Amino acid sequence: MSTKTFNQAELAKYDGQNGQPAYVAVDGVVYDVTGVAAWAGGKHHGNLAGQELTAVIDEKSPHGRGVLKKLNVVGEYVAG
């Protein structure tokens, strides 16, 4: 099974707007947050889907990375 690779431009397409799925990247892994009520409309506490959010989850999130275990992995994030 091949893993889909996302760069910044590709990930930005998955912003949860206009019927698009909502994806976020953390530490090189892309997660699907589409079905998560807290991410309705591609937004969660001022953060937007379609972005790399490692610093946000590590430095500002009250739940930290533990919440990621509940999400489906959809690919790999590579900067550039």
UniProtKB/TrEMBL annotation:
It comes from the Bacteria. Pfam families: Cyt-b5. The lineage of its organism: Bacteria, Bacillati, Bacillota, Bacilli, Lactobacillales. This is Cytochrome b5 domain-containing protein. Residues 6-78 form the Cytochrome b5 heme-binding domain. InterPro entries: Cyt_B5-like_heme/steroid-bd (IPR001199), Cyt_B5-like_heme/steroid_sf (IPR036400).
